[in-house]
Amino acid sequence: MNFFSLTVKELQKIIQEGQISNREIVLNFISRIKEVDKYLNAFITVFDEEQILRQVSNQESKKLSSAAMFLIPIAIKDNICMKNIRTTCGSKILENYYPPYNATVIELLESAGAIFVGKTNMDEFAMGSSTETSYFGPTKNPYDLTRIPGGSSGGSAVAVASGECPVALGSDTGGSIRQPAALCGVVGVKPTYGRVSRYGLVAFASSLDQIGVFARTVYDAATVLEIICRYDPRDSTSVNIPPEKYTVELDKCDDTDVKGLKIGLPKEYFISGIQEEVKTEILNSVKLLETYGAKVEEISLPHTEYAVATYYILAPAEASSNLARYDGVKYGFKYKDKNYDSEDSEYSTLVNMYRYTREIGFGAEVKRRIMLGTYSLSSGYYEAYYAKAQNVRYLITQDFINAFSKVDLIISPTTPTTAFKLGEKINNPLQMYLSDIFTIPCNLAGLPGISIPCGYDKNGLPIGLQILAPHFEETKMLKLAHFFEQVRKIRKVKNQFLV
Ligand code: GLN
Q1: What's the 310 CA to ligand 1 centre distance in angstroms?
Q2: Global pTM?
Q3: Which of 79, 99, 255, 419 is the most buried (most CB within 10 A)?
Q4: Domains of the chain, with CATH numbers?
């Protein structure tokens, strides 16, 4: 029997019934990954049978059989630390880095019974929108292997979209969960900044980074979210509010949740240049919600046009500072030339050791960001760039606060186009950066956001619909997404790997 096309909810039922051995169910996913990942490259590390069976017996011995994720396989983006498991961030510089500790999200999932199947591919240090900047080669889109899956969490999106596992964790700094979810036809959720602990998430741009979830249904995403959305004193930006039972809320969700719900469509998100089919599908989706009594109105988020520019000042500035720690001493790769011990070695100065380690250890996109960030933080430019961008960030946040005084939720496309071809934008960073035009403002404002499948273009490529909610209103957002999923009825992911 094949289990790989089942949702978490369906797997939970089979596991609870106890008719099939737990080992058989879990190992089914490992053989599935072996079978299809050679075409997709969604994983950097896949756990072997022994590692998996050890986890299974561990979970069985804890007698956690009623825990929400009991024996449910999950894949983890390779920038989330797992104790003694290689965590590369898609970079040569961390190619052999084995963290001595677990991220908080890993501990939470482990206590909820989950089985970790592997670490997923990603753009190097989460910098990218296509998973092409990974040192471990690009991940392919299961809908069309000549196309990108989106990024930076492309590996996690593809693992879920191709049936390598039912759910996965990713991280979203400017859209890295929602954008690949949209391009791979799965659900991707970025919670409110501060809702999920970042302890053990390798930092890219700390004021924007947030861990979130990929799944094939909103319900499955909610199952994982309610485990990881917890206060954590080890992350100083973690917010101390009680955990919520999202799945219980979804079980209660019906037409009455949508009747009278005020939905805003930001006019700045329906710009020229957006693929016609994307626009049409979003507007059709909104019309469908109107038939259930949702009240849709046009709104304005006037500073949207500055969001990408603001992000590309702030994110590289934070990255240049965060990435200073990779110096060949504390973590991972250290360049050694063959004359290392001789007096005329290029290593004769400390600076040379840093220089060569970083020159060889980092890829082109990471170096570009470090240079941009160092420049905008340098004295003389700080006020003109970094400080200015912080001011604009405030205005962008205010736009949302004003909008949410009129509407309950905001709907927009997740991306301006469907998945593009591998190689199409890799040499044109500006074009690449624009793929996140609709996802970035949400990170700047720290809001929760979700992307859910809403249709396909003429090539059969998935289109994602984004819902944004006020801070900490994940429940309201998930309810609308869940409702939409039921009425739009494209629940099953369908591509050449998963039919
Ligand atoms: N694509 C954006 C970037 O390259 C966002 C990445 C992310 O969310 N990690 O910065």
Answers
A1: 13
A2: 0.97
A3: 79
A4: 8-260+408-487 (3.90.1300.10)
